[in-house]
Specification:
Layout lengths: L3 E3 L6 E4 L2 E3 L5 E7 L12 H14 L3 E10 L2 E11 L6 E10 L4 E9 L6 H10 L1 H4 L31 H12 L4 E2 L1 H4 L31
Antiparallel strand pairs: 1-9, 2-3, 3-4, 4-8, 5-6, 6-7, 7-8
């Protein structure tokens, strides 16, 4: 169950509660998490938020393509596009999500798709056109190397029209189409806003170690 009361599912078929697929291979899912959101910073500190998201994604072996502020049914949100390697075979999966955080819970709308047997075509064509020096670039949200999948111009939206069947193109377009159709229960909309992650509790004070008594010889 989620607080979502409306969602345009045109072209999608339900596979199980909260999960739908379409003929292009997209998987759409909705999620509700009744815990404090695990975002690394509040939405009003967006530079710090997306830098933290970039580090988290890279630490998991993927790459954050973009993180931008958004609003869903009037509620502040963050929209992300990430790429992750397919562990079982060559290629990548692309995941688009909109996270709508509140103080003690969050709702997430997610769209994802993976490359098929033909992988790397988009990247190869674009690199051949712009050249390797212009293709690869530092991550736009973080200074220095952060690991994970590399940041490059091949993931930019400007190339989507040239590769209309690529999973990144499909994910980005589906998320942009679906997000404005989402509506929420008024009770969710009225919850307190997310002000940032919960600070870790300080370590509990340790009782001093018991002093070892002096060893007395001869009972003295």
């Amino acid at each position: 169950m989620t607080p979502i009361t409306g969602l345009d599912l045109t072209g999608f078929t339900e596979r199980e509660p909260g999960v739908w697929t379409d003929d292009a291979g997209l998987v759409l899912s909705v999620h509700f998490f009744p815990v404090v959101p695990d975002l690394p910073a509040p939405l009003h500190e967006f530079q710090r938020l997306r830098a933290g998201l970039a580090h988290l994604t890279a630490g998991a072996g993927g790459g954050l393509i973009e993180a931008v502020p958004d609003a869903v049914d009037g509620v502040p949100a963050v929209r992300q596009l990430v790429k992750v390697p397919l562990g079982s075979r060559p290629g990548q999966a692309f995941i688009g999500s909109v996270t709508i955080p509140r103080a003690a819970c969050s709702t997430v709308v997610k769209v994802q798709a993976a490359e098929g047997s033909m992988t790397g075509m988009r990247e190869a064509v674009i690199m051949a056109q712009v050249g390797p020096d212009a293709y690869f670039r530092p991550h736009p949200y973080v200074e220095g190397g952060i690991g994970g999948l590399p940041s490059h111009t091949g993931d930019d939206e400007q190339w989507d029209a040239r590769f209309p069947e690529h999973p990144l193109t499909l994910v980005r377009a589906a998320l942009a189409r679906i997000t404005p159709t989402v509506t929420f229960d008024d009770r969710f909309k009225g919850l307190p806003p997310f002000d940032g992650p919960v600070a870790p509790a300080p370590p509990a004070p340790q009782a001093p170690a018991a002093k070892r008594g002096w060893f007395r010889r001869n009972g003295g």
